[in-house]
């Protein structure tokens, strides 16, 4: 039962980290719980925990990390929110540090100036620098097409 509790605690701990590492130890703990359920003694359980955890980290983590990288790093075509960064938009409502709206590919987005000091008037073309939740941070559209 202690292995199952350890697995749950480690799985919860993974939710609070950005490493994608702790979850593999949770898998090792579940494997050790399985060994314990089959009647293995403590030494075998610890060995199962270590082997499954080590193999998981060594074999699965590189694959997961490779697929978790942004599309721009991997050379793939970005999609979703990631595809909006770098795109052009037109200011619909004055954009400043506190408020504003831009139209990007026919959709309205809340917008803020990147530096918080620049003000963009309606009709001005801007470039999306960063997406923060449902708000885009924009700057002058003086960059070449990305």
From TrEMBL:
Q: Which domain of life is it from?
A: Bacteria
Residues annotated as transmembrane: 42-60
Q: Please report the stretch or stretches of sequence annotated as the NfeD-like C-terminal domain.
A: 82-139
Q: Name one Pfam family in it.
A: NfeD
This protein's membrane topology, according to the annotation, is:
Multi-pass membrane protein
Q: Where in the cell is it found?
A: Membrane
What PANTHER family has UniProt attached to this entry?
Answer: INNER MEMBRANE PROTEIN YBBJ
- Full protein name: Membrane protein
Organism of derivation: Actinoplanes lobatus
